[in-house]
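Researcher: Batch entry, complex prediction.
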Amino acid sequence: MSELTITLLRLGYLALLWVLVLFAIGVLRRDLYGTRITDRRRRKAAVPAAAAAAVATEPSKPETAPTRIPRAARSGSGPGRLVVTEGPLRGTIVPLGTSSVLIGRAPGCTLVLDDDYSSSRHARIFPQNGQWFVEDLGSTNGTFVADQRVEAPTPVPTGTPVRVGQSVLELQR
Amino acid sequence: MATVQPHRVRAGRGVELGLLLLALAIGVASYALAGIGTTDKVPPDVLGYGLGMAALAIGIHLVLRWRAPFADPVILPITVALNGIGLAMIYRIDFAYAARGREDGFAQRQLVWTAVSVVLAAAVIILLRDHRTLRRYTYTAMIAGLVLVLLPLVPGLGRTINGASIWVRVGGVGFQPAEFAKIAFAIFFAGYLVTHRDTLALAGPKVLGLQLPRPRDLGPILIVWGASVAVLVLERDLGTSLLFFGLFVAMLYLATERLSWVVIGLLLFVAGAVIAAGAFSHVGARFDAWLNAFDPAVFDQSPGGSGQLVRGLFGMASGGLFGTGWGQGRPDLVPFAESDFIVASLGEELGLTGLLAILLFFAILTERGMRTAIGVRDGFGKLLAGGLAFIVALQTFVVVGGVTRIIPLTGLTTPFIAYGGSSLVANWVIVALLLRISDEARRPAPSMKPSLTPVAGTPVVAGDDDQPTEVMRGVR
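Model: Structure tokens for the complex:
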């Protein structure tokens, strides 16, 4: 066999080793993705491309995550989304519509927290007369708006930290 | 309304099959190139060899499809690739030895051991339906581990080869029981620590930011330290001793998240190593060969000189960036080129590029093990997967570090690559356990019935979430 063939085989073999390395890394790259957000109404329309576009890819770059703000919320000056700023779900964005958002550990909640310090149905954030309110649903550890424990439904201005268990949420435009 | 859900896990069996074919291609290419390099023609049995390897690999892949459909898709292909590379290198070194009149037939025996290992790994996956079963055997595993470690000291059974009494010979088949003891100890440590981790983590004074354990909780770590020193003294095996102690400290850290255990472990280990280096000549010689490797007096000293180490270094140096190519180097000039120094042999013939790829295989394997530990829900599984992954990582570090003269040379085997039946079988069993745990870790939770959640308004809460909430204390 010629010298050239041998050299090509030798380098080709090394390339093959690295192809396996890179393919394996490509497979495990999926682990880096965190949670994903799907819009229930969108999902019913069953457009796979739209579902893929709604995936919040990396928690460190929440601003790149595409969010779909409903027209009703966008037309007013009120907040358009609920953002988790601290805790295990940091970077998660829940677009706000016209219905209330239930927060807690129960799988049926809108924002499901995997947090031993949050109750199954912990708090509810709901709109009334053009303003968003937070209401504690009798949780063990309480809900705090700007470090004040919530006793009755309390208005939440945009940008105010709301603490639920180990997570901190805030409303953003 | 939007919902937040974790990323859906793909079972990954199709991906695994693709990677497996790539790994098999690497194995067969290694074998063919080793044949071309040594005899200038493709080995005549390359087709049979390829088919045999493919049968074993596809066989265990089918077992996974049957019994562990959500197992990690990367672990098996990486293992097959490493095993194939190792087999080809042993085959190639056999040729070099044969040219010098030594007929060893290492490759034949390693091939048989590979088949035995794969069958055993498949048996583990089939028979062990749930890794939590192993927790019942926590203390049985401890006794089994201790018996295995002490077995080579039984007169008439143990054999002393090259100064280390780590061999047992039964009916003509020799094996190193310590290789199996490491699995038993991983099971014991996981079972023990999952029960006792709160005491080990929370009680005790705080000094300089380190949460120190109470003196009476130090008992187990001192016992394990004593046992590993005993291995070092009685069986003269530095590597196994380091492996057991490192495993325990790593699993303590995994269980408690207390840095103090790592500090205490390192201090104990350094103290033990310094005392051992002073008290026992063979350990002292290892340190001397490491620190003054290029001293002619140390190089020529026999036994215990640095000749083997330095020859391995020169071999890797002659390989350079891209290596000499399969069969073109002279790895056989290094003693034990097929077992202890197979890393140097690979470094010589595949170069830095190839060796780094192999090291990355080990890194990926360890990462998958650790990822499994993060993903699995029960504490025992977390500790076991973390411990098993750490075994592979530590063993690779100790061997490669020893051969490349980062740490003193110890007598451990490179997992999956080096010649040695017990090591191969034990590491395949570790892979089987990791696959079993990763199946549990990646299996999606049973899904909720969608009819329970209306589209608008307050969702109805399903009834299965009545776990108590932890009360926050001292947060505010």
